[in-house]
Amino acid sequence: MKPKKNITSVLEIKDLRKNFGDNHVLNGFSLQLFEGENLVVMGKSGSGKSVMIKCLVGLMQADSGSIRIKGQDITILGQIELDLLRTEIGFLFQGSALYDSMTVRENLEFPLRRHKDKLNMTGHTEALVIEALQNVGLAHAIDLMPSELSGGMQRRVALARALILKPKIILYDEPTTGLDPITSKEIIELMRSIQKKYGTSSLIITHDVDCARVISNRIILLVDGINYAEGTYHELSQSNDPQVKAFFKH
């Protein structure tokens, strides 16, 4: 099931290529993320998922190809324009990536301070922090340190931090990795409720088949550096293609 043509594309990667010497990691990878959609990208370890995400957030430069976010090609934007665009994007890092030396409150204030000129939020910081923590059920943890939180709670705080600027697009990098099955289900349900509440568009990088089944509107399989196959979970899980079937074996 492909999105209808009149739905707006909020993110488009076109013919992305990235080599490390003779190692061709991305070989012309393309995707489109549509408004209000949960798009899952699945790939085996070393398939280029992390490289694609790093190119997407500007941590790595692609060799060629384009990345357009809300119609703007980020590969040619200046730093000021790129910083403004980044306020439209939330990023849940693999492993949460909280600042160990900061309290939960300070972790959430960090992106607000960075973008205060654009956001004009003087005096509203406290309210935004509390709202973000309420969204993930952790308002009571506001003054705790990351070391005082369980892995699942840390992931929730990281999600609150990704949400605090009320982004239109959220990138999830392996959101359930390292979590037990029950906590993984809680995080997936939280992702669904946030998408419903804010109408966000989500790009979810995962190798967790259960996560993909529950959360996705559409799935792309990244194989040999390209968009090898795409469709709904049902469509792909019924495929007879050996490369596709390999993803859905239990």
Automatic annotation (TrEMBL):
SUPFAM superfamilies linked to this entry: P-loop containing nucleoside triphosphate hydrolases
PROSITE patterns named in the record: ABC_TRANSPORTER_1, ABC_TRANSPORTER_2
Keywords: ATP-binding, Nucleotide-binding, Transport
Residue ranges of domain ABC transporter in the record: 11-249
One MF annotation (Gene Ontology) recorded for this entry: ATP binding
Keyword Transport: yes
A Pfam family it matches: ABC_tran
Protein name: Organic solvent ABC transporter ATP-binding protein
